[in-house]
Amino acid sequence: MDFGEKIKRIMFENNLTQQQFAQKIGSKHPAVSRWINGTSKNPTLETLEKISKAFNIPVSYLSDDSQNDFEKCEEEKIKNNDLKLIIKMMEKQNKLMEKLSKKVDLIEEALNDAERKP
Fold first, then answer.
1. Could you give the CA distance from residue 77 to residue 41 in angstroms, rounded to a whole number?
2. How many helices (H) and strands (E) does the chain have?
3. Residue of 64, 59, 41, 35 lying closest to 49 (CA atoms)
4. Domain 3-65 -> CATH class
């Protein structure tokens, strides 16, 4: 898959026009059009990094022409999403544990008060 096809796929997956894609990466619409049409060389490393950051994909996916890169990219996205989900779940669990700990402290305090009273 060449660079232009990869850009088209990214645009399709994100429901973007060439103009919107260009704005998202801080580039000009004609440059994006030339990449897609194959009338321009691939962009600079700086531009590849902007695309990578904007769409959470590895630079290697954009710069390598192997067929398996898309699958690798998708696997990496899935792993990243899984990690984000795990982190959110752990944050929720920590909040619940804090609430539970406070309730246990209140119960212990009430039991201690009850033991002190004759």
1. 27
2. 6, 0
3. 59
4. mainly alpha
